[in-house]
Amino acid sequence: MKILWIIGGTLAALILLYLFLLFPRVGARRKYRAFLGQIYAHRGVFDNERIPENSLPAFQRAIRLGVGIEFDIHRTADGEVVVFHDATLQRMCGDPRRITDLTLDELRKMSLLETGEKIPTLKEVLDLVADRVPLVVELKGENTDTSLCGAAMPILENYGGRYCVESFNPLLVARYGKLAPHVMRGVLVTKFKRDGEDRGALGFILQNLLLNFLARPDFIAARHVYGRSLPVWLCRKLGAATVAWTIRSREEYDACRGDFDAFIAENVKELLK
Description:
Layout: H1 2-22, H2 28-31, E1 39-42, H3 56-65, E2 68-75, E3 81-83, H4 90-93, H5 104-108, H6 122-129, E4 135-139, H7 147-159, E5 163-167, H8 170-179, E6 185-189, H9 200-207, H10 212-215, E7 219-223, H11 230-237, E8 241-247, H12 250-256, E9 262-265, H13 268-271
Parallel strand pairs: 1-2, 1-9, 2-4, 4-5, 5-6, 6-7, 7-8, 8-9
Antiparallel strand pairs: 2-3
Helix pairs in contact: 3-6, 6-7, 7-8
């Protein structure tokens, strides 16, 4: 009997510890209704032939459709904030260097997929959008350097329009939360090993949202097939909003609609029919 009490007590303690680590910031659905029930165009509405992802024309297309926009930001070597997804320039510009190692002037000399479109700055994107649609801004960075937050926050706060932030890196989410606690913030999550990216122990920690105690997110942005995974489901039950990414068909959208409060998607015209 004593052993059973010990086992039961240990399990109860582990469950309480897990809930403490997992617990989101409460009240997101009430405070941030304007962001929920929305479809956000993933990196704009692009085709990567004439109109590349994360370009001003891709964002203009999304505005014309009346959908929100999701895009990614990096800090350049000279402290500017630019809109770009990958860590390196290889896929989009044919250059193997890291975007954070180059200055804005150096980046301006490059073309996105040889279309003539340039990598835009965060301010250029915000000036274009002008609060016509809500924004989801992904903070990019895989280490402990959180300087991106300090560079981006004044630009976003001066914007005055509707925006929220998210990141796979809980340290970036936590830092932005300290700089701008009134801004809706979210943690991105997936099952890394199942998706072909083995991050070892760190992957286990991230996919189980064990660093939520640092970030205290308002929403969990999960790959659309993982809306019913235990950590995402628990966070929703505890009051967090949930966002699905990246939906690419009507079938995927219909399959996950009941599990999420907002959706990041490509082929958004199909979803709007």
